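Example 3.2
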Amino acid sequence: MRHITTTSARTKAAFVAVAAIGALTLAACSDSGSSDTSESASGEAEMSEEPTEDTMAMEMTAITVGVIPIVDVAPIYIGVSEGYFEEEGLDVTLELAQGGAAIVPGVVSGQFQFGFSNTTSLILGVSNDLGIEAVASGVAATDSLDADFAGVMVQADSGIESPKDLEGKSIGVNTLNNINTSTINQMVRDDGGDPSTITYVELAYPDIVPAVVSGDIDAGQTVEPFTTVALGQDLVNLGSNFVATSPGLMVAEYFTGTDYAAENPDIVAAFEAAITKSLDYANSNPDAVRAALLDYTSMDEATTQAVTLPAWPAEIDGDTVDLLAELAVTDGFLTEVPDLSALK
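Structure, written as tokens:
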């Protein structure tokens, strides 16, 4: 399999800024558990805006959405900024959480009315009868193994030249027994290797690249902006574990609680309409996405221009849900594939 390296000056310059971003993000996310930062989605909570005739006539419904401070959720920030949610009568507050696995209990408990989570976490939630259901697609991999927002990084002189060479190695991932481990395992299987020999090490995303560089682990799975950070450190990308598993893999979904959906069908329909419009807009306007990253992340402009953007299809990919559930069974996360109709 071909190695992928990028050593542009712009990427080099981006590294320092993104490393700082990682530290800031980690600090912000680790101080108070599953959710620690909330803000008005417009970022102008202290500003008073003159109501329009339309907004005066429409009764607005306040909702809180649990999201992760990563590139993947750019469409919802854009949708709020463009007024797509307001047009549907929704007053949105976005609350930041450590990861999708932390958002699932937040939605189940009613802390959030909606949330963003990776597809495997939702599958595990459904299998445990947590009472959740998908509302819309969240984010997807690209179709290019060489140009995706995710990657598996190794040192250039590690002797690891293909996924099969990951046999017997240690790999850093942000969550054990979840989408990253199952897709890396599949990547190794497809290359003729035995993933049962791999030792996975759970690390926060900002810590994965330094651990690979220092030699504490043999490889690390990254998403943007840490994929760009890794390439800036002259690490070698074996390719995207998502694309290797299935080009265009639906990595995450927006979801809500089953009880909430039954009690509030109009609100759920309004959210679905607004987020679908937001996904369409983001997918067609990468410049708007990069500009949005300047608003809700600490990335500088050079970094926002350097990162590889994911895809944001508006339709839920039921085949991806089936595939990830089958991989969860193969890897022993599940004993059998549950009824997945709530996630399609």
